[in-house]
């Protein structure tokens, strides 16, 4: 009877704790990349569409560059106005008066590590309003990691790239520019994902951890630095994700995530402990080896191959796996027992065995075995 009462008391205390909002539950996990800003100008809405896709794949603040004079049709009379503005900049690139006025952009560029510039081109040159923004703000972008996206109908972007480098002589370029035109515009999502994987953005000095819980046992994994892992971490900021995985091939457990992540597949030989994305929407956790084209997501740390097989329940099917950014995926910050000191319980209120590993409640406190 006392044992039953103790269990009920533990469970009741856990339910109360789950309903409270403690500092641990409210803390925002840090991301594995530096803070990013997207600056864009869009005349025909093509660039705005690209930025919309980009911000589905990365976490970034966004500001729009707008001309001070509204209602101008830059495309009228074979781009007469736009051509005149571009010619004025080309003839006197060091004269502030050559650059058309733009509306004030309320942004502190010093707060950002990475800046992505997205712009159309006019007659092969960077659109004049974006040139104005870069001319007046280039000094604040010195030393920043900068990337460039250019949209055009068909014209080559080499002159636009040259404009960007002239206007930002002290920027550190993250990689080659992304060119989206009328021939490949339908593949914007894929092109953006592939391009992001090639960019050397500034990263923070710490790594990002994810926690994996199976059958009451929790293990730590280090997330990879790529876009897919970053997007997975962003998804987990909203709360733990539970998936059902099954053993396959004698080397992994795998199954659907329930959502898609951007891919940057490469041929690799996955090792025990590796976590990868397969075909954009499936997660694989390895206790053996396999060579295939995967997108790396991370790696389970600190377990031998035999320990991985036990933790991942190798050979079994329909394994419930919870992914989270906190070591305690339940959100419980504290639990106490009113009787039965010395007893140990799992997080769901069952009396734990001596062999239980992971997070348990022992003498009224969370303990990691």
Description:
It is a single chain. The chain is of the alpha+beta class and 369 residues long. It has 2 domains: 2-29 and 207-368, Beta Barrel (Cyclophilin), CATH 2.40.100.20; 36-198, Flavodoxin domain (Rossmann fold), CATH 3.40.50. The chain is 27% helix and 27% strand. The protein has helices at 2-19, 23-26, 46-57, 76-91, 128-137, 158-167, 188-198, 227-236, 305-311, and strands at 36-40, 61-64, 114-122, 125-126, 145-151, 172-173, 178-180, 209-214, 217-223, 241-248, 252-256, 266-270, 274-278, 282-286, 290-300, 319-324, 344-345, 359-362, 365-368. The strands form 3 sheets. The protein has an 8-stranded antiparallel β-barrel. Helix 3 crosses helix 7 (188-198). It is elongated and about 80 Å long. The two termini are 28 Å apart.
Quick summary:
With 369 residues, the protein is α+β, with helices and mostly antiparallel strands.
Fold topology:
Elements lengths: L1 H18 L3 H4 L9 E5 L5 H12 L3 E4 L11 H16 L22 E9 L2 E2 L1 H10 L7 E7 L6 H10 L4 E2 L4 E3 L7 H11 L10 E6 L2 E7 L3 H10 L4 E8 L3 E5 L9 E5 L3 E5 L3 E5 L3 E11 L4 H7 L7 E6 L19 E2 L13 E4 L2 E4 L1
Parallel strand pairs: 1-2, 1-3, 3-5, 5-6, 5-7
Antiparallel strand pairs: 3-4, 8-9, 8-16, 9-15, 10-11, 10-16, 11-14, 12-15, 13-14, 13-15, 17-18, 18-19
Helix pairs in contact: 3-7
């Amino acid at each position: 009877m006392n044992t039953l009462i103790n269990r009920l008391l533990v469970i009741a205390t856990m339910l109360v704790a789950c309903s409270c909002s403690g500092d641990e539950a409210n803390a925002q996990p840090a991301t594995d990349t530096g803070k990013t800003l997207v600056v864009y100008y869009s005349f025909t809405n093509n660039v705005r569409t690209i930025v919309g896709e980009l911000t589905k794949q990365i976490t970034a603040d966004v500001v729009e560059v707008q001309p001070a004079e509204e209602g101008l049709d830059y495309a009228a009379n074979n781009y007469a106005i736009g051509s005149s503005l571009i010619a004025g900049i080309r003839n006197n690139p060091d004269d502030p008066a050559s650059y058309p006025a733009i509306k004030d952009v309320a942004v502190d560029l010093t707060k950002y590590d990475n800046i992505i510039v997205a712009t159309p081109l006019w007659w092969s040159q960077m659109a004049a309003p974006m040139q104005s923004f870069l001319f007046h703000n280039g000094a604040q972008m010195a030393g920043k990691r900068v990337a460039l996206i250019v949209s055009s109908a068909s014209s080559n972007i080499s002159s636009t790239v040259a404009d960007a480098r002239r206007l930002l002589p002290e920027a550190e370029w993250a990689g080659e520019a992304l060119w989206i035109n009328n021939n490949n515009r339908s593949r914007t999502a894929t092109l953006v994902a592939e391009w992001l994987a090639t960019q050397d953005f500034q990263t923070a000095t710490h790594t990002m951890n994810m926690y994996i819980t199976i059958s009451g046992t929790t293990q730590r994994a280090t997330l990879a630095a790529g876009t897919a892992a970053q997007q997975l971490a962003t998804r987990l900021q909203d709360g733990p994700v539970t998936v059902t995985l099954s053993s396959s091939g004698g080397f992994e457990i795998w199954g659907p995530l329930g959502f898609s992540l951007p891919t940057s597949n490469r041929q690799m030989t996955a090792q025990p402990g590796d976590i990868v994305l397969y075909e954009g929407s499936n997660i694989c956790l390895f206790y053996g080896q396999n060579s295939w084209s995967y997108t790396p997501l991370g790696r389970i740390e600190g377990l031998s191959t035999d320990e991985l097989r036990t933790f991942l329940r190798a050979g079994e099917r329909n394994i419930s796996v919870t992914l989270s950014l906190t070591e305690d995926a339940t959100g419980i910050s504290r639990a106490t027992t009113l009787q039965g000191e010395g007893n140990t319980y799992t997080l769901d209120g069952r009396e734990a065995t001596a062999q239980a590993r992971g997070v348990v409640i022992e003498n009224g406190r969370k303990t990691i075995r």
